[in-house]
User: Fold this.
Amino acid sequence: QKEVEQNSGPLSVPEGAIASLNCTYSDRGSQSFFWYRQYSGKSPELIMSIYSNGDKEDGRFTAQLNKASQYVSLLIRDSQPSDSATYLCAVLMYSGGGADGLTFGKGTHLIIQP
Amino acid sequence: EAQVTQNPRYLITVTGKKLTVTCSQNMNHEYMSWYRQDPGLGLRQIYYSMNVEVTDKGDVPEGYKVSRKEKRNFPLILESPSPNQTSLYFCASSPYGGAPPRGYTFGSGTRLTVV
Assistant:
């Protein structure tokens, strides 16, 4: 069973601080990783994708990947109340027939306190 | 505008009455997929299609059918809905099976209630 694990939270962070979200995955062959943000009742929207070990930065967001530890993280700097949402980690997995699509973690509920 | 369009957005139906949720994308994507999302269970894949006439089961296919007769459309069919299929459903598409940089493009969702 290919799994993606996240702490469900809620994770409460003061406005202006750094929010750190974590994700582990079970399939060592996974190559590509995504972070989506989802507001309640809305569709997920892509924040970051990463497929090389190390850090990738985009504005206030930094994704970190460590394939040896099978670990992906998302840092949100200068957190804003509008960042309050559920953050989904997704992993692209493959089978013999090709890409099996994305497997999602259950999400971490992030609350930014004004 | 590039998008995935799902209809209807909301649906309340009765047990056993067949229904279809439509999904259409205008990006010429080969890969399309259906997910359901339930509290505490996250997004779970129901069925996916890698191209026209090619479909395969995801993690929770029981009680659902799909078809892919044209590249742009991927309807989800519930032949005999039951209350445990009450959920929020998302259709998604991708040019390469979810590969980066974009991963999936999601539809707006369909909230289904079966009574």
In short: Residues 68 and 74 of chain B are 5 Å apart (CA to CA). The interface with chain A takes residues 31, 33, 35, 40-45, 48, 50, 56, 58, 88, 90, 94, 96-104, 106-109, 111 of chain B (CB under 8 Å). The mean pLDDT of chain B is 94. The two ends of chain B are 36 Å apart (CA to CA).
